[in-house]
Fold this sequence. Notes:
It is a single chain. The protein is α+β, with helices and mostly antiparallel strands. The protein has a single domain, classed as Aminopeptidase. It has five helices and eight strands. The chain has helices at 14-24, 31-42, 70-74, 94-107, 124-132, and strands at residues 5-9, 46-53, 56-64, 79-85, 112-118, 136-144, 147-148, 161-168. Strands 1-2-3-4-5-8-6-7 form an eight-stranded mixed beta sheet, sandwiched between helices. Helix 1 runs antiparallel to helix 2 (31-42). The chain is globular.
Amino acid sequence: MKDKIVLRKLLKEDCEKISEAFKKQGWTKPIAQYELYLKLQKEGKRDVIIAELEKEFVGYLTIQWTSDYIPFRERKIPEIVDMNVLKKYQRKGIASCMMDEAEKRIKKVSDYAGIGFGVTKDYGAAQKMYINRNYKPDRNGLVSNSKPLEYGEKVVIDDSIVVCLIKEL
């Protein structure tokens, strides 16, 4: 399967296709999100890796070269942000293939890669994959909107609550 996966950069014509592909499986991913990624890619602030299988879009991953997460930003650790694989293509090595490429790119500028994952069971597969890839907690506990939480803070568990991990490349 991995030998059939093609990785490439985001193109303008992808924005609507990606949004529509996720809409078909019940996920809200607006076109504007990918138009922003395209702009950031052109500015060199983010790499967007598109995965295709037999010329069909199957997933994407982005690398944010300057992280919003202060501990990563202070250490100049690029962050892998917003990786998604369409449900029907999950567990086929696509995410691993994209992660391999992202880590290869990051290694050119940093000895470390950073990543954050959601804390609900919806993120269980990703959590397992990152741990299996030797990502380790960065020792800052739960993070809300790119800032480590303090003891006693009250939060709503949603996609803004993550655990951040780092990996030595």
